Structures are given as structure tokens and as C-alpha cells.
User: Fold these one by one.
Assistant:
Number 1:
Amino acid sequence: MASPVVVAPILVALATAVLTLVTRFDARAQRATSVLGGVAYFAVVAVLFDRVVLSGPTVVPYYVSNWPAPYGITLVADALSAFMLGLAAVVGLAAVVFGSTYVDEFGQRLSYHPLFHFMMAGVSGAFLTGDLFNLFVWFEVMLMSSYVLVLFYSGREHTRAALNYVVLNLLASAVMLVAIGGLYATTGTLNMADMARRLADPAAYGVELAPTLGLASLLLAVFALKAGVVPFHFWVPAAYRAAPAPVTAVLAGVVKKVGVYAIIRLFFTVFAGGAYANTATFAYVGPILALMAGASIVYGGVGAVGRDDVDGLLAFSSVGQVGFIVLPLGVGMAAPDLTVAFAGAERTLAALGVAAALVYAFNHALAKSLLFLASGTLHATVGTTRLDRLGGLAARTPLVAASFLLGGLSLIGVPPLVGFFGKLLVFRTATEAMAGGTPGAGVALAVALGGAVLTIAYVTRAWNAVFWGEPSETVRTVLPERWRGVGAGGDAATDGGTNGGGSDATDRALAVQVTTLVALALCIVGFGVGVEFVVDAAAHAAHAATDTQGYVSAVFDPATQPGGEGGGH
Amino acid sequence: MTQWILAGVLGVLFTLGTYLVLRRDVVRVVWGVTIISQSANVYLVTMGGLAGVAPIGRFGEEGAATPTDPLVQALVLTAIVIGFGTTALALVLTYRVYEEHGTIDVYDLGRGLVDGADDADRDRGPVEGGER
Amino acid sequence: MSGADAGAGTAEDAPDAESGPSLGYERHTTVIARTVVRVTVPIILLTAVALLLQGHNQPGGGFIGAVLTATAFVLVYVVFGQAYLQSDLLGLDTADDTHRAVEYYRWLFTAGLVVALASGLVPLAFGFPFLTQAVAMLEGLPLYGHMEVASAFAFDLGVYFTVVGGLLTVLGEVGTE
């Protein structure tokens, strides 16, 4: 029997998007629908997480339209999907609450809420689907919404950034289509489980292996573009600066991770189960990923150190941080069969690499969305994020400052925050690989250490310039004294406020924004202290990602498959 | 024979698309992207095999004749619909770029990036009279 | 292209302003164009509806029907102008503000999405997976005889409204630029 909880995240996001269109006539109703939709999304993801991860890790397939695999579209919820969905739900909820006070009234009524939830639907679909072409479709849903959201203010910078973003992603979509077509012609299927099964036993299914290598490389390039890894990072800084802050939080926190997820899903689940997994033919992907990750870490770090505004700094930092996420994937893939003790069991290095990437991705999603939202709050209060015009804000807005500090420290990797454990696992993957004699692992370790130093440099720089020291001229004019919350000293914040309206409304909006920031900061501390939970979930997810056999047998389990006769079409 | 012709056509289309994407004029770039995604669609159709009768409607009437693979055609339909939307967006975007910058030359736009580097403050501000 | 757009926009507005509301449509098109459009638009609309109705098991469907419908409107727009299309043909109250018409199109778009999503959700209530479809055969109907009612048609209808609404919104917004 099909369990609707698998498809629920997609449906909730879609329904919320449609409902926010229906309630467009009333701004309050629309905002309430949107926030409730975010809460509902979080709730169904929690239920799914409980079902798939907490009550014994399982793989739950869902046959959309009651068609059996591999003929219909199959959704598959396993620990990896559930982990990514959890990440999306946390960041999405924070962003939707923040956005409902940050984006101006007109923009909200026009398109902000529907687009935001369509983007979340695309993200959820991409995490859940077990069909290659369906993955393409969800990518497009997600990207289409994000194009318009990047273009949201449609000013000079925004149009230019969006042009860059749109053209690159359209080309990537065409390339992805070509790769999918090629894989279909080669393997005769689009279902990921079926493809994994056929690649594992090519002789029985008459599959020619050679073309899949090139086609897989095309897919790798496409996913790397979505993840914004060097050398496919060109669109990142401009697009992240152009989009409204809550959208940037989701773009950097979640949408980027869709690219990473796709790399994990295809290269660790589908292709890794292939007959060539243990031969040299596919070994080139690991080093290439590691190389791209290393280049990202260096490029992003150096770029971030050189930027003179908070948004730009954070955007370049995203390029660097995604390098930290991809690095363990590359290292793990370079020596997949090395055995290491991790999370209470003997696991392969590939699994450790995936777990490290996931924990780091979780950390980056929380920390970076917090930092981007904080930068948005600065914009709403002070009216600028230029480093040379800010200063001394720690005394004026202590809560924002404290949240920013926690986010920054988590990015650096200071215990007991999540970031520490993320970095620890990344380094652990590299050292294990080095101990196992994998060539180049030492270089990866060195690059990661260098990147960590660069992270310290730019986070410190941002913190010093924005929050420490004497208040700058701009800060003195806009915030003559400490901001005290709703109703007190209200007129202080109105000057730079983009929310308009009376000082009370502005204050209330700011209170909501600051609460969101604090909540995210508490998440970072909380998940850091209770890190076993995150690491266990990541270990389950990594096991699910590398266990091709389990994935295939769950999808083709005759007990769950719908009977031969599906519905009409 | 058909496959050679199609291979040639695909080659020409991809070449043309790539050439246009590398032009300075944004409109041409959009044309190039459109051509590339259309040639991806043609490629997808050819991946389903070229022989056989129409898969829907005529199937069953012609006895032993094998139908063409209908899946790729369904995929291409989906891809065409998506391409339709994205092309419309890209064209409107081109128009907005022209309105905002007064040029659709990629080089000029790129130069603006250097000149406008100190415009960072305005980046997140809503723009009056922006697109409705 | 942007220049051409702007030019077309002003050319339309000007004669309307001169000739007043009595004429109701664009003068600067030829008789041939106007006559051809009068003849072809009903045919296009009929074809669109036919494609929509047979889409669930024959070539056709909501999307292509909607695109054809929108094409018919585009023809009217090109030959007779925006004002004629919105106030005379569709009977929308757009006297003061062209954005009013776009508001209607948006509602059509929304309604289409609601229908499409709801048609997918209904099977969940009966314990089937999302988007499961069913077919009912009605026999012995007067005049018609045998008829096939497919639940997929509801989804097609939703798609149809969504796409028509979306395209008309684009036409309304870009056409008034």
C-alpha cells in the first residue's frame, strides 16, 4: 500500500503555492497561508523523517499514478532524501517567516509567496524522485521560480545577474537533457533503480558501458553548475547579491545542495553500483571532484577575503564552502572500498565521505542562511551592507550581532557548534584516505586546512568591520541608540527601513526578523550540542546512498509494487 | 541513412547554437540558447530509435509492426513545454535588460559591472516602477 | 526588438485616442487581415477545444489546446488591438486601467492550477497514489451512444486554464509595455 507521506512534502509545497495565489486579494491572509504552509511542510518532513530514518532506516518507494516501476514515475524516500528534506524544511521555514516581513508588501502580493513555495516544491521533488527525467523536470520547476526570484527587484544589477544566471542554467538544462537522452538510449531505462540494476549486470541487459562514462560526465558538469563549484561558479556572486535576502538564504542553503544531492544520488547510488565501479574506468570522477572542490575552496576563500560588502563576502564564501562539501565526496570516491570505523560500525570510506559532506552541508545550510538573513536585516535597518560604512553594531543590535557571530563561528568550525563536527568529518575523511595510501589525499587535507584559515580570515574581517569598533557615521545617523524592540525607541529604525509604514510596523517586522535569526542561531548551537543526532542521521543517509542493492530491491519489491494494471494515463 | 542525416543536422544545430551563444548581442544569445535546447529535443527524439509505426493510435492495427518508442516523445513534449516557458522568460528578461541598461551588448553590460561595483548598496533595494 | 515593441504600442494608442471609443479597434490594419482573422479565429478556437477534449488518449491535450487558444487571442490582438480584445471581445471592464484585465487572466491561471492540483489529490482520498487516473465508459446515451469519461480530462482542463491564463497575462503585460 502506498504511503502518501512520501509524496506529502511535494504536495504541501504545491498546495501552499496555489493557495497563496488564491489568497492574493488579502495580504494578511496570503502571508498567513504562506507561513502556515512553511510550518506544514516542516511537519510532514518531520513525519517522513521519523518514518524513514528514526524508526529503523528504510527505503520507501511511492508509485505515482499507481504505475509499477520502471514504467511509471517512482518517488523514493530513503535516509538520504529525508536528510536533505530536513535541511530544506529548517531553512525554508526560517526563510518564509523572515520573508513575510522583509519583502515589501507589493512584491509579496505580486508573486513572492507562490514563487517561493514553487521553488520548495521543485527542491522536494528533486530530493524525492527516483526517475532521471523527473529529476530534470523538478530541477526546471525549481530553477524557473528561482529565475524570477533573482530578478525580483528587476533593477540594473538584478537584470544583469539574472541574465547570467538564466543563460548559464538554460544551457545546463539542454546539456542535462542530452545526457538523459543518451543514458536512456544506452541503458534503456530512466528509472534510477532500474538503471543501477542494469549497469550492475550489463551483459544480462545488453547495456554498452562505454558511452555511460561520457554521459555521466555531462551530468557531473550540470550538477556542479547547480552547486556552483569552480569552474562553474560564475553566476553565484551576482545572483546571490541580487535576490532578496530570504531567497538568497534558500538559494545558498538549499538549492545549491540539490546539485550536491544529485551528485551523491547518481554517482554513489546509481553509477557506483555499476559493473565498472571497481575498475579504473570510473575512478577519474573522484580526483576531478576533489580538484574542483579544492579550487572552489581557494577561489571562494580568497574572493571572500577581498570583498568589501557583506553580501558579496557571503556569496564568495558560498563558493568556498560548497568546496568543503564536495571535497569529502571526491576523496571518498577516490578510494571507495577503504574500511573505516565510523558511527559505531565498519563503513566504507565512500560512506564516510558522504556522511561528512552531509553534515557539512547541514552546517552550511544553517549558518549561511542565518548570515544572509542577518545581512538582510542590516539592510533593512542600516540601509547598507558595505563594510566601510558599517561598524559598532554590536552595541546597537546585540541580538543580530550574537546570531551573526554564532553563524560565523559555525562556518569557521568552532566547537561545540555544528560546523566543528562538519569540518572534523571532512578532515577525518582526508586523513583516513591518506592513511589508506590514497594519492593526493594529503594535498586535499592541506587545501582544506588552508581553506579553514581563509574562512577564519573573512569571518573575522566581516565581524570586525560590521559589529566591532566605533559606530560609523551611517550607523550613528540611522541608529542613534540601541534598538530595544517593539514600541521602544521606534523612530530610530525607520530611516533605513525598507518596510515603510509606521515605526511600530517596522519595529514589529524587525522583531520577527531578529527572532528568526536567534532561532536559527539556537539551532546551530542545539544541533552542535546534540550532534549525535545529526551524525547518526548522516550515517544512515550515507549508508542509504552507498547501498545500491538496498535501493534497487526496495523499488522493485513485489510487496509494494502496484499490480500490473495501472490506471489510465 | 536517416541516422547520418540526423547526426549531421544535430551537428549543424549545435554548432549554430554555440556560435550564437558566443555573440555579443543578448538577443542572439537567447536565440542560441533556444536553438541549443531545441537541438537537445531533436537529439532526444532520435534516441528512441527511428524505425517503427506511430506508437499511439495506430498501434495494434498494423499487426506485427513494432511501434516507435513513445517514451522519448513524451519526454520531448515535456521538454518543449519547459523550453517554451524559459524562452519567454529569457526574451522578457532581454527587454528588461535593455530598459535598465540601454544596451543589449554583452561587453557593455560587463563593463557596467566594473563601473557599478560601488553600487552594492542598491542591490537589495526594491526599485521604484519595477516590473509589475 | 524592444524598439519595435515600443513602436507598436504607441501606434496603437494614437489612433484610439483620435477616433474615440466608437471605432473600438485598430485602424492601421488591412481589410484582408481583418477578414482573415474573423474567419480563422473561430476555427482555431474550435480546433483548440477538440484537441483539449481528445487529449487524454489521442494526440492533443490541455497544453496544446491552450496554446492554440492563446494564438487566436494573439491574432485578434495583433489585428484589432489590445483594447478591442479586452473590452469588446472578452467584455472585461478595463476602462480605467489595462492591469484590470491582467488581474482576470491571473485568476484564470490560479483557477487552472487549483483544478489541476485538486484532480491529482482526489485519488489520495480513495487510497490511491497521487495522480492515479480512472476511466468510466458510459453506454446507451441518447444520441451519443458510447462515451468515455476519463478523469485525466480534469487535469487537462486545469492545464488548459493555467496555460491560457498564463499566456494571456504575458500578452497583457508585455503588450502594454
Number 2:
Amino acid sequence: MASMKVHITFPEEKIKDPVIYQIGKEYNVITNIRKADVTEKTGWVDLELTGDPKEIERAVQGLKNKGVIVDPIERNIIE
Amino acid sequence: MAKIKGLICRECKKEYPAEPLHVCEFCFGPLEVNYNYDEIKKSISREKISKGPASLWRYIDLLPVAGEGSVGLHAGFTPMVQARNLGAAIGLDELYLKNDTVNHPTLSFKDRVVAVALTRAKEFGFDTVACASTGNLANAVSAQAAQARLKCYVFIPSDLESAKILGNLIYKPTVVAVDGNYDDVNRLCSEIASEYNWAFVNINIRPYYAEGSKTLAYETAEQLGWRSPDHVVVPIASGSLLTKIWKGLKEMEMLGLIDNVKTVVNGAQPEGCSPVAMAYKEKRDFIKPVKPKTIAKSLAIGNPADGYYALKTVKESGGAIEMVTDREIVEGIKLLAETEGIFAETAGGVTVAVLRKLAKQGLIKKKGLAVAYITGHGLKTQEAVADSVDIPVRIEPNLTSFEKNLNMSSKKGK
């Protein structure tokens, strides 16, 4: 089992979509929200994904396909 | 280490040992160094600092290393320039520039943070250091790792311009050009940092690395005669530099090295990558990531790790965050060069252009003591100004041609 910490940002048009629930249903990963700030217009969630590394990879791509921004927990590393 | 208690989560305040860690396991907040200020207070003084080396290591009592500084021994303690000409041009009576264009060894403020990061990495016993960078950070890590005899990996997007790669390759690190876009490279580096036992300077060593920026604040206060400025203008990329300048000034106040800090901290971003400036403008307290499109590549961080904290610091100090266009950035670079003889990279252009804007808006007062941070040398980003400088006056090799083309007349015989 591997795990990955990601920071997800929701654009306004995606704020009502239950994307974390959907990811847990569509891929074989455990989703664990560790911190979040979501308002009616936008928001972010710090999420831990646990599972097989390949499945985590697919889940991350799945999140991106749903229109949310996925970054590592460190945000932008390239300086 | 008596001066350090360990690491502490900036959010939930959970404490950790002083190890290569950077994220709180409980709330995923960033970790920072937890100092034992009572212990530090016993030995630190202006006199002791003044007798220290002419480098950032004169502030070693406030840096997160166990022993002596062992890397970057000439980094820091750069000139504090009283900018009378630039001040006159933009209407400020007491303007100073902290000139990190001449930082050693790679001509940017990154030499500071890397000196601290690699000294700490050696103390941890790492034999390999790494970073992900398209510019100044890679230069600083590559050069200082070469001197420290550490193995070095630099990760870059594969489409980076060759001139920028050359500046790293000369120090003989392993440069890894990753096929894929910015986000792909970014995520790969996060994964590599968690898989390999390397000192990834701005990931697992970040709590120590970031502290190096505080030395800009210490030097500012010392070089101004042990006082804090009324205003500072700081470029924002990850946001770390701005927060650490504020932290450095507050530490000096707490330790009795300077009196009341009433410094107003202002931030500067390019319009093409302004996630923190936009949050400030829209009165938001969170950062919306952006896709950077600016000539100020060293500030092009679309989802900055410390953006939230930079925003908080600016608000807390009563400052402002402004943004400037690419054209204004070039004007800023030229204005600085033409008035003070300092050639800054694009980030310096952003800082000067924002300084001018804030002065014009009256947010920096004419009589106040202002300091602007010029963080990198212009030779690194010559392409940004290549099309906007004059061309040479071309003449034939005789006096007549010289006088004709330059509208001169020789005094001799006239």
C-alpha cells in the first residue's frame, strides 16, 4: 500500500461536484480529507490517497479529468 | 542543539524533532524551525554579530544548524545601497536597495537559502542534494554542492532554454530533463523526494532552507544602524522570502537587537503570475492557482507554497501587494540600471516597478525609510531587455565620423 498527499483546488464551477466521493467509488483508493476550506464559490482540500501506486496514479488523473486542480501537498516545488 | 527545540507545525503547532521533515502528519501543514529563544537571548548581542564573518554566517545563532557554517561561506552580507538617484526619480527621500545581485557564488538571494540548506544537509549525513528549478535555485544548489563535494541532481522541464541549462551544467551536477509539462515535473519531484534518501532542498529540507532568507532582514537592520525600515518591498514567488523577512525583523525585536518594529511589508508580483496579489486585491484569504505567463520567470510560481502566509504577513503589517505588467518590469530594470548602476534580473524589475507604483499611490511615504530587495543579477535574464536598449552608434575609424555621428566638436583649434 502506498499513499500520496495532494492539495486540490476547486474552481467555482466544480464546487458543487462530489468529486472526492466519486473518486473513492471509481478507483480502488481510500480518500482521507485532512484539512479543507470550502466556500460557496471556491475552496481547497488537503487529501490523502492510499492504495496501490498505479491505482493512486489513476485516481489523480481521474481528479484532474473532473476539472479540479491537483498539486502535491507542497504545491509548486519548481523554483 | 540548545538553540533549536525541533520543528513545529505552522498550523496545529504539533512538535517534531529537528529532522529532515517538512509536512505535519496530522494536519498536513508546513513545518518550521522551533527556536529556543530564551537560550539564544543569553548569548546574542549586536557586538557579537558585528565581530562575525562578513557573510550570512555572522547570524549563526539564529540559523538552524548545529555546528559552524560549512557551505556558502561567502554568501550574504551584500551591499545596502542608498539609492538617492532612484529615490529622486520616484519621489522617495530615503530609499535603500538590498543588493543581492552580487550575492556569492551565483548572484542571487538563493545563495543564502542554499548555504543554510546544504550545511544542514551535511549535518544530517546526506551525500546527495537535489532541487527542482528552472533558474536561480538550480544555479545556487549546483555551485554550492560542487564546492561541498556533494552529489547533486537538478530536475528541469525538458523544454527549458539551453542557455539556462548551461548555467547549471558547468558545475557538473546531474541535470535531469523531464519530458512533460510543469505539473508533471512538479509532481515527479514530490514523489522522488519521498522515495529517495536525498536532501531535496526545497522539499524535505525546506524548514531549514527557508530560514536562510531571514538573513536579508538581519542584514537590513544591521546595515541601517540597528533599526528596521518603515517600508519594505519584497518580490513574491513562493511567498517564503517575504514571510521570512518579517520573521527576521520580529526576531531581532524580540531579542532586543532592534527597537519597535513598525515595518510595513509590501509584496510585488508580475501581472502574468499574481495569485497572491489577486487574493489581496479581491480580499480573499486563500490563493487561487494560476498558469504563469510572464517574463519574470523567477517569480512564476502559480500555486505558491507560502502564498497564504505571505498574504497574511502583508495584511498583518498593514502593507499592500501590487502587480506590474511585463512592459513595466522592463521599465523597472532600465530605471534601476540608469539611476543606480545596478543590473537586476526580471524579479528586480518587478520590485522596482511596484515600488514606483506604491510611491505614486502614496502607500510608501516620501519621508519614510524604504528598502527594496533586488534579488538577482540581470545577466541571468538578458533576453528580457535585449529588444529595449539602445543600439551602439556606429562610426568609421576617423575623427570626422565620430564628431558627425555624435554631434561633437573638438575643442582643439576651435
